[in-house]
Design a protein that fits this description.
Helix 3 links the parallel strand 11 and strand 12. The strands form three sheets. Strands 1-2-3-5-7-9-11-12-13-14-16-18-19-20 form a 14-stranded parallel β-sheet, with no helix packed on it. About 10% of the residues lie in helices and about 20% in strands. The model has no long low-confidence stretch (mean pLDDT about 85). The chain has two domains: about 130 residues, Leucine-rich repeat, LRR (right-handed beta-alpha superhelix), CATH 3.80.10; about 120 residues, Ribonuclease Inhibitor (Leucine-rich repeat, LRR (right-handed beta-alpha superhelix)). By secondary structure, the chain is α/β, with parallel strands linked by helices. The longest helix is centred in the last third of the chain and has 12 residues.
Length: about 350
């Protein structure tokens, strides 16, 4: 049974809940010390709990939350987190799998993440952190259970300590922040990252630390300020399959930018400033979808010479209604071979 008690300005949980024996999810505006008996009762079956629109500190909601010893999914939304004691969520340290923090203001201790040793997925969205509060703390003991971390639109200025605190992360999303680079010290050599999303940040170049993510399969660095790809930017990323670099002001891609990336199948360079198809495409033997939509790429024989028989080209020829793919197929015979390319 799911119970929602929001928007009704209750000062405490209704005692009627003491007569319900099958509450599995509960949504409330806030808690008080007087709610401890109700929380102890619903705890037997409660697996999902959402708290929002209140101030969470040691003197209010935490006293009642300590009774949630079987919780698997916790959402805290539109809440001010203040003066949080170190072991605030110790009662759910071994049961909590999913933590959602959205539209919060976090002013107090955030090392509570270090105690949640069963966390699998963490979602942090539109959260305002105090200047001295790191969004991802460095824990004395790493949390090995977490597989996915999403910190979106939370005013991050630098790459967080996510891979140090959660060494088994497979999926890391840091979209819509203000990150300008990836500090190599934040990326251990034995990291497990397979998917990295950094769309909408302030990157001006491909970070060197990216090459330490040897298991990377999916990369999204769209909507940044990258102007060029230099030799070796993606070198030896042997598992890389999908790359989004669209909506960057890219004007140049060095020939060896994708050297030894044998598994790349999809590459988006849509809405970049590229004029010529880069020779770097010759290093991508399995490329089957190349997106130039919105980019001023010239339709000339260079397209045929570099891409050869690869299908799946998106985009239009500039100042024309012709699709690049139509031009490509129409010009295969007339353009012939250029032994100087590829």
């Amino acid at each position: 049974m799911s119970i929602t008690l929001d928007g009704n300005q209750l000062t405490s949980l209704p005692k009627a809940l003491l007569h319900l024996n099958d509450v599995t999810t509960l949504t409330v505006d806030g808690l008080s010390d007087e709610d401890s008996d109700v929380m102890q009762h619903v705890n037997r079956t409660l697996r999902g709990f959402t708290l929002y629109g209140t101030t969470l500190d040691e003197s209010t909601s935490l006293a009642a939350m300590q009774y949630l010893s079987h919780l698997e999914d916790l959402s805290i939304m539109k809440v001010r987190l203040e003066e949080i004691p170190d072991r605030a969520f110790s009662s759910i340290a071994k049961t909590l799998h999913y933590l959602h923090l959205s539209q919060n203001v976090i002013l107090g201790n955030f090392t509570l993440l270090c105690d949640l040793k069963s966390l699998k997925r963490i979602y942090v969205s539109h959260v305002e952190f105090a200047p001295d509060i790191p969004p991802v703390p460095i824990c004395p003991t790493p949390v090995y259970s977490s597989e996915r971390l999403d910190v979106t639109q939370s005013q991050l200025e630098s790459f967080p300590a996510a891979l140090l605190t959660f060494p088994n992360l497979h999926d890391l999303s840091l979209n819509q922040n203000n990150i300008t680079d990836i500090d190599s010290s934040m990326v251990p050599a034995n990291n497990e990252v397979e998917e990295l999303r950094m769309s909408g940040n302030s990157l001006i170049a491909v970070p060197d630390a990216l090459k330490k993510m040897k298991l990377l399969r999916y990369l999204d660095m769209s909507h940044n300020q990258i102007i060029a790809l230099k030799d070796g930017d993606f070198q030896n990323l042997l598992e890389l399959n999908t790359v989004f670099l669209d909506y960057n002001p890219i004007t140049f891609i060095a020939r060896a930018a994708f050297q030894n990336c044998p598994r790349v199948q999809k590459l988006s360079l849509a809405s970049t400033m590229l004029v010529n198809v880069p020779e770097a495409m010759t290093y991508l033997p399995k490329l089957n979808l190349l997106d130039f939509s919105g980019a001023p790429v010239k339709c000339d024989c260079r397209i045929v010479w570099i891409l050869k028989q690869r299908p799946g080209i998106r985009g239009n020829c500039p100042n024309s209604s012709d699709k690049i793919s139509d031009f490509f197929h129409r010009s295969i015979v007339s353009c012939g071979e250029n032994p100087a390319i590829g």
